[in-house]
Every structure is written in C-alpha cells, then in structure tokens.
Amino acid sequence: MYASNDKELNLLDKSSLEFAKKELAPGREENDHFPFGPFFGHVVDKAFELDFFHIFLPEDLGGVGHGIRALCIVLNNICREDSSLGGIMFTNAFAQSLMLEAGATEVLKQISDKAGSAGEFLIACPVLSDPARSPMGLSADRNGENYKLSGKIDYVVLGGMAGHALLPAAIPGEDGYSWFLVDLSDPAVIKSDVVFSHGMHACPAVDIELKGVLADLVGSAGEGNLYFRKAASVMQVAAAAMAAGVMKGSLEEALDYCRQRRQGGRMIKDWSELQMLLSNMAVQTEVAQMLVSRACMAIADKEKDWETRAGAAALHIVSSAADVVSDGIQSMGGVGYMKDFGQEKRFRDTAHIQALLGFLPLKKLDFIRKLL
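The structure corresponding to this sequence follows.
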C-alpha cells in the first residue's frame, strides 16, 4: 500500500508479505511458546539472507539504503503475521539509526562487513525504555582511549542473540548520559536467562551485568539523549507501522472467521451488530495505513514540522491499535481468546509495541510539552 508507484518498493512489499505468509503464519503459535519452546532461528536467518535487517542501513555501510519508508513496508507486512520478528528488526534498525545520528559510520561498516550471520549483524538495545527517564544502572570509567562499563541494565532486547549491544551509561563528571557499543562475547558480560515478556515472546530480551567491560563511546560524551531523540523522531513511525500491521492482521482474521461462521441459522457476517464492529475496525485500520504512509513521505521530504506530524501520527496509531485488536477478539466470540487463533497474541503484542521507545503516556506528555 505504501509503495504505490515505486517499482522497487512494490517488489519489497510483495516479497515481505509472501515471506510473512509462508514463514511466519504457519508457526505463529509454536514460535510464541518461546522461551519455553524452541526459538525460530531458521526464520531469522532467512530474514537476514533476504536483507530485511539491512533495509535502513545506507548502501556505503553495507546496507540496502531504502530508508524509513521501505522499513515501514516490511515491518507492516511482517507484523500482520507475527510481531516478534518485527521487534527484532525494529531493535536493530533503531540501534543503527542512533549510531548514524552519532556519526558512528565506521563502526557500523565494520560490523556489516564482518557479519556472516544474523547474530553477528544484529545490535541489541534497550528499546522498551527511555534512558532519560530510567534509572541509569551503568557507569563508564575512562580507560586510556576507551571506557570500561560496570553495573546492571535490565531488558536489553536481543541481548541474548546479538553480537553487539548499544547501551546507555553515565560518565562520572559528565552531565546527561552517553551511548557505548559493547562486544557481547566479552567474558565479563553476564547475561540472565531470557526474560519472559507480556508480548512478542520470540523477540528475546535479557538482563545484563557488566564487570569492567571494554566499550567504545558512540558519538560525543553526554549527548546520549540528543541522539536518542533524533533517532526516535523517525523510528516512532516504524513502531506505528508495526502497530498498523497488527491491526491489519487482526481485521483480516476477523473477516475470514465471520465469512465462515454460522450461528442462529445464518452467517454471523450478516448480523448488523457485528458489521458495525468490523466497520470500525476497517476504518481505523485504513486510517492507520494512510497515516504511516503520509508520515513516511513527510520524513523523506523533510517537510516543515515533520517531527510534529510524524509524532502525532505515531501516537494516534499505537494508541488506537489495542482497541482495534480488542474488537478483533470480540468479533470471534470465545475462540478469539484462544491461542489457536492469532487475536489473543496480537492483543498482547500491541501492548508491547506501545512501550517501544518509552512509556506511552510519557510520550504523549512530551508531545504536548513541545507544542506548549
């Protein structure tokens, strides 16, 4: 839908949708058993081979270089079937975006050039929090030209599977916080078991303890919040694309069910009450798709006040997604709550997506405070 007249983006739209239908839909319920069941590593590897993790990275750094619009296309299609893979893609793309804002291009190129697998390419990051509003559990001490990180940090997404992690830490004597890149293979990095989450179960996160781990400063000291805000102003639209994809998947499953189910001597799709419920879902879903598309255009063209427009669109979509998916459950009656169908999982995943880049109510407060 976003691609319209661009042939290259249309091909990406088609290939990512086919991938989601073929690789994600059949194993959605089984994959959601993680960490109490097997991880869908073979699917992640296929996504890596198709360059889905390279979309946002510029071509001269070993990426595809299609930008935010292409990333949103793929995330939307992936999350129609399973948001866990979308969460993995989002986390890596956000880490890349933040490092680009900080000017860490050489480091990104080195990671890309050396990576022969998804794990070696991916960058973990605590994307479910805003470091400026969270307790700073890590401190960075100068060690020659580098730094040594010590302390604990909770819920680092991809921390158990990625080769590197982008982590916030405080430097004694510096205002604010800074970002550091850590090699997660360092023996001084201690990882917890995978944290069982509310949603996106197969987008794994771990708590991490560091004991004097060598780390590279990303960008300038004390400028961590600046880089986070710049990256988040763009990537919040990617989070909205994920939510819009979940809404689309919920609507499609509700429509399919209602076309087949009979009760009371007639097809339930003919009940006016259910038609009204489905109509509200369809309207909200189409609005979300259009808002993501329009926000991507505003960012790509650097329109005046694009940050405000993109922020408003993203907040509206992630806020309304839970209501749409809740209606998707209701439209299917009791079976909507069962794990055999995708609606129950989508409801949990939507709440998880709302927390990307910080607590939703606080993001809304940030938005209005900027206008004030």
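Residues 224-260 form the longest helix (37 residues).
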